[in-house]
Amino acid sequence: MIYFQGKRIFSAIFDMDGTMFDTERLRFKTLKQAAEEIYGTPLSEETLIGSLGLSAKKAEALARANHGEDFPYAQVRQRADELELAHVRDHGVPIKDGLLEVLERLRKYGLTMAVATSSRRAIAEEYLINANVLKYFDVTVCGDEVTQGKPHPEIFLKAASALNCLPEHCLMLEDSQNGLLSAIRADGQPILIEDIKPPAPEVADCALKAYTSMHGFLGDLNECMPDLGPPALTDSFPPTLNQFSAGIHGFGAMGGGYLTQIFSHWDGYTRPCEIIAATRSRMLRETIQAFGRFSVRYSATSFDQTIDNLRMIDMDDAEAVIRMYDVAEIIGLSLPETAIRKQAGVIARGLVRRYERRGRELTILIVLNKVGGADFVRRHVQAQLELLVSAELCRKILDNTHFVETVVSRIVSKLSNEALVRQLRIKSKMFQNSLDDEPDAPRAAPRTPVPEYERLISRFRPFTQSSNALSQLHLILFNSEPDMPLYAQRCSNLLERLRQVKTVDDITQPQVIKNLLWNGPHAIIAWYASLLGYSWLGQGMGDPRVSELAQRLIGEAVGPALVAENPQMEDAVAAFSATFLERCNTSFKDPCARVGRDPLRKLQRNERIFRSIDLARKHGIDSSALQFGAALALHYALRSTDSKDLECQQMRSLYQDNGSIEAVLTFTGSYNGQPYPGLDPVTDAALIEAIAGYFHGPLCAEFVMPTA
User: Fold this and answer.
1) Which of 33, 133, 424, 608 is most buried, most CB within 10 Å of its CB?
2) The Mannitol dehydrogenase C-terminal domain covers which part of the protein (predicted)?
């Protein structure tokens, strides 16, 4: 039972055509085609519109009044039924946007439900089964089972009676004037969901509430239902698929190991019909396509979470990425800054196509680990848009696109290619063994006649063995820590529906805490652990030198500096600090190479480390641990053997060409097409000297590279 618009509601009764399914337009098309085939002339728009919500008998009378008494309505309708069913069998039933979300919520809160349709039972059941919504309804009442069609109230009264519910306690959802009149005359609670032809104003005014779409009704429905709250880690994803597509632009650790989960939880009632994920990794694409799913492992809780319903695309396939931006309702963007600059043109083309085709809003979650990441992406996309369209159209597209600043407090790592290959090798042997062990199904001797069910089942039998074997395989692609919420700047209505997203009016505070308290110390710990010979963060934290530095960074430098600057953040800083240190201690699956990569980006003047130093010095707080961390970054870059870490290579070149760390710290050359914001050799002279002291000092003596 729910209270809706002040009414006590126990049941909901749905019209089918035009209300649940977008079939009225299809019906118009098939009736025109059938009339032209049989009668030589298509039915008029007047006849088609006028017959909405009428019984077959009244629709026939209208057709003959407009087209002559000899009009073969029965034959035309029969042929239209055939054409319509053929289309539905080939293409599926066109479900109204928001329907599944509505049905799931009503069922979740205990309402009984019925269908009250003017269609014949044979057609109604095929449509309901085809659309996979028959499961929601306790009762189905069809047009060939009542003596009087809409606008007579018989069909709604019969449905309410079958549900053992008084009409005044039933929501009755309709799209047509005749249907609405039927619900009104049944003394129900009429809900108007407008379709092709809105009812006359005086009729529409009699509805309990009128909406232009199912989503409007869904919004009001949410208001009278309790908030589900954030999911627990082990909560199952909703089994029902809605009509949304979600996109992930950058299927790395955050994209694959976190955003897929965010989208799979969705609103707690349904989840997207597909998640489209773009990556350059051919290995990842082909692996996921072969298995149809993958899992994220939460080692601290010994829990594996399986992600399915994923479609992989090649990020270098511009057309595929453009299509993703065209069809998705929300996209998680999780790419390095350099890649964003390169992809901005493709994103812009996707936004143009989306706007020109549908004009629908798009929400883009910017998961960039950078303060001001949303503005950064917007600027680059805007620059590309201005090259493609007029200034006015550019403004409209940007107004229609939400670039959402986010904060993620989760540590996720992706399996290395080598580890993935080892896992595939083992899974391949398991799969082959399961096929070899499966005996061939016995074949029965031919019989005449063969029962229909047996003939139909035989079509599926060849696929059973391999699919059963595949379902047993479990492919782990990511390791993750268990934090759940994604913090996002409040700006898009869609975000309010996502169960795992926590919207805030001001994202700055959690963003500053995350960037300074987590990102900077996280990198420093990784550099130190790597230089000491540890491959994994958790292993490094077992070394007293690393753990002591971690405690100093958090407890004596960054944490106190943040609280001094923002006293109201004291509790949040304390909570973030405790969680961070706990996670570092158990990050046995998080490679130092992942956390420590791109040190030049992390040594920018206004980024995580030097920004924390400035904040500490402002409040008279000791920043020596951070200065030591900057020296570790330099040693890490000089000793790095990772051929893919171009920033380490650049830092080595700068050091070798000049023979001083000052040349690295004060670098102002081109960085991703922009001047690099390095330290100032004059105003930052004391800081440079302090870092040089650590670089050449006893704590770093064992890291010094031997000279040629």
Assistant:
1) 608
2) 517-646
Q: Nearest-CA neighbor of 253 among 224, 231, 277?
A: 277
Once rounded to an integer, what is the mean pLDDT over residues 625-638?
A: 97
Tell me the domain boundaries of the chain: 2-223, 229-436+465-503, 508-703
CATH topology of domain 2-223: Rossmann fold (3.40.50)
CA–CA distance, 520 with 609 (Å, rounded to integer)? 5
Distance CA 54, CA 62 (A): 10
Q: Which of 15, 81, 326, 590 is catalytic?
A: 15
pLDDT (tens digit per residue) in 303-318: 999 999 999 999 999 9
Report the DSSP beta bridge partners of residue 310. Answer: 275
Using an 8 Å Cβ cutoff, are 175 and 193 in contact? Answer: yes
Say how far apart CA 196 and CA 297 lie, in whole Å: 49
pLDDT band of 457, cuts 50, 70, 90: low
Strand partners, 210: 192
* Sheet hosting strand 189-193, strand order edge to edge: 139-141, 112-116, 11-14, 170-174, 189-193, 209-211
Report the pLDDT value the prediction gives residue 61, as an integer from 0 to 100.
Answer: 87
> What letter represents residue 352's amino acid?
V
Query: What's the rounded mean pLDDT across residues 663-685?
Result: 93
CA separation for the pair 495, 542 (Å, rounded): 40
**219: how many CB neighbours lie within 10 A of its CB?**
15
Measured in Å, how far apart are the chain's first and last C-alpha atoms? 81
Fold of the domain spanning 508-703: N-(1-d-carboxylethyl)-l-norvaline Dehydrogenase; domain 2 (1.10.1040)
Is 436 in the active site? no
Q: Which two tokens stand for residue 14?
A: 């749905």
Q: What is the pLDDT of residue 510?
A: 84
Report CA-CA distances (Å) from 522 to 460, 581, 587, 597, 626.
Answer: 52, 9, 11, 11, 12
